[in-house]
Design goal:
Elements lengths: L1 E5 L6 H12 L3 E3 H11 L2 H12 L5 H12 L8 E4 L5 H13 L6 E6 L2 H9 L1 E4 L5 E3 L18 E2 L6 H15 L2 H7 L3 E5 L4 H13 L1
Parallel strand pairs: 1-3, 1-4, 2-3, 4-8
Antiparallel strand pairs: 5-6, 5-7
Helix pairs in contact: 2-3, 4-5
The structure holds adenosine-5'-diphosphate (ADP) (2 copies) and zinc ion (ZN).
Amino acid sequence: MNLILFGPPGAGKGTQAQFLVETYRIPQISTGDMLRTAVKAGTPLGVKAQEIMIQGGLVSDDIVLGIVAERLAQDDCAAGFVLDGFPRTIPQADALSAILKQVGRAIDHVISLEVDGEEIVKRLSGRRSCSSCGKGYHLAFDPPLRAGVCDVCGSGLVQRADDQEETVRNRLLVYEQQTAPLKDYYRSRQVLCSIPGIGPIVEIQQRIAAALVE
Ligand code: ADP
Ligand code: ADP
Ligand code: ZN
């Protein structure tokens, strides 16, 4: 199953990706996570990406396509994958379909999580993640069992630098201008499933599971 999880920043893509990974036994490919890893490690690619990520802009299509193409070629993607945070521009979507076509594959479903702006701001301001394993939490909506500590590995939780209010506003603008048009792109290719993204996390999982068996 070749899936894309689509939606604005904070829509719940990372949260729902975890469920898809467990249910369908396919890897999550998060370009945001891969870029943050490169930044942390100080690789040449990370150094190039860092400044634009802090501002909430988009990293160049060339850089992102390079890391995605390399990742999709790995063995664990043979039975499918869930892309999270990619594609974010029409050129990225075109390049993705070309990469897949070369190996006789295509995207099966694009799951678009529909969440309004007010909810997004609440979600991003309370978002925290584990500094070690990366698991996501929310201070109010999905808190860890012990405040500030990861349930899975016991490490401390941190806030992303780009979840500060001014940066969030820029990211939402960038989303509307460059990424939202992909909905029409995938709708016209008949792979778009729109899922209401508000409500308990488990209910959204059920909506996604139901949409995938249709
Ligand atoms: P969000 O939680 O807002 O969906 P991500 O973790 O997916 O954020 O991405 C964080 C940042 O990494 C983005 O603001 C952008 O700078 C960069 N990034 C991630 N994926 C892409 C992509 N497909 N194209 C360009 N930039 C990307
Ligand atoms: P994205 O990957 O789309 O940027 P995340 O999965 O990181 O979004 O979710 C953003 C924040 O909202 C996180 O703190 C997460 O715990 C929280 N969250 C995710 N799904 C829901 C939901 N259905 N209701 C309330 N909060 C949610
Ligand atoms: Zn952890």
